[in-house]
Amino acid sequence: AVDTFFKVVTLQNLFSVAIGLDVGSGGSRAIAVNLSGKIIATGRVNFPSHARTVCGNTVEQNPQVWTDTVI
């Protein structure tokens, strides 16, 4: 995974959840759990094939695609 972080979010004092995001080389994944550890939601978005550029021995990804898949 390129970057993983967790954040606790309180929505209008109704409930609290922990949200985990994982942005890897093939796509972005997310999970939301309540403070008891119960999974509330999960999701995954694969990066489109045109998001990568191969040049010799290097592969580059468009960082805008990372943002688009997480938001």
Could you describe the 3D structure shown?
The protein has 71 residues and is mainly beta. The protein has one helix and six strands; from the N terminus they run E-E-E-E-E-E-H. The chain has one helix at residues 63-70; strands at 3-11, 15-23, 27-34, 39-46, 52-55, 58-61. The strands form two sheets. The protein has a four-stranded antiparallel β-sheet with strand order 1-2-3-4, covered by helices on one side. It has a two-stranded antiparallel sheet with strand order 5-6. The longest helix is centred in the last third of the chain and has 8 residues, at 63-70. The chain is elongated, with a radius of gyration of 15 Å.
Q: Main traits of this protein?
A:
71 residues; four-stranded antiparallel β-sheet; elongated; disordered N terminus
Strand content: over 45%
Cα distance spanning the termini: 18 Å
Number of helices: 1
Strand arrangement within the widest β-sheet reads: 1-2-3-4
**Residues in helix, %:** 10-25%
Q: How would you sum up the major sheet?
A: 4 strands, antiparallel
Q: What letter string, H or E per element, gives the SSE order?
A: EEEEEEH
Radius of gyration: 15 Å
The overall pLDDT average reads 76
Q: Per the principal axes of the C-alpha atoms, what is the gross shape?
A: elongated
Unreliable parts: 1-6
Beta strand count: 6
Given the helix and strand composition, which structural class is it? mainly beta
